[in-house]
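Moderator note: this is an archived Q&A kept for reference. The question asked for a predicted structure of one protein chain; the sequence and the answer are reproduced below.
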Amino acid sequence: MYPFRVKYSCLTRVLRATNAAEQRFVVRPAMVEMDLTYRNLAQADVDAIQGFFDSQKGAFDSTWSLAIQTLTFTRMRFFADELRWEETLPNRWSTRLRCAGFHPAVTGAPATFPLLDSGAVTQRPWSKRRTFETNFNDLEAGVRHALSMRGGGFSGFPASAARAWDIQHPSIKATEADRLVKFFLSKNGRFGSFDFTDPDTATTYNGCRFASDDLEVQYAGFNHCATSVSVEKV
């Protein structure tokens, strides 16, 4: 099965005004997308997988379920109508299946942004950013007319730059990845806000959110995962 990839996907609609005020809406429940890799299977296993693929008529049926450990993913569907097999060893076959469906409701999610077992927020390399927002017009004469939408002193507008952190986990355990996934899904991706502590200054910022509705986890081997997320304070 290794390596394989799982992408967790939410869908948030964000309406943002000129002064950075926001309204956010959850459009649908969380979904999951998987690349399942099978290597050097015996003919009996090939027949079982091919038989199921045939019974679903490829990408046609989206009503089947997939159980992995304690989770059952529903309304699953294949992405393609074709299933390709490659003979990698004598009488041994390999293939890859790409499928997607709905993630079950999340229980037992951490209440705060999850730390690694070491107590660290992130692994290296990681980065942080500050972003201003400027409307400007450069004239042919070389003069710039500019209007600062952040920190410009306008009433009702942000008084400082937006902050963001790009958190990297190039090598973490499966339990650590699971905590992050549960937290991400409990916030419905970009929808929910939370407190986040800057790994550099140890300053805690409230009202932070995930910058993306997608979280991808690479499973390189047993208990060996990799992922990354971006957190923003707008």
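Archived answer notes: The two ends are 40 Å apart (CA to CA).
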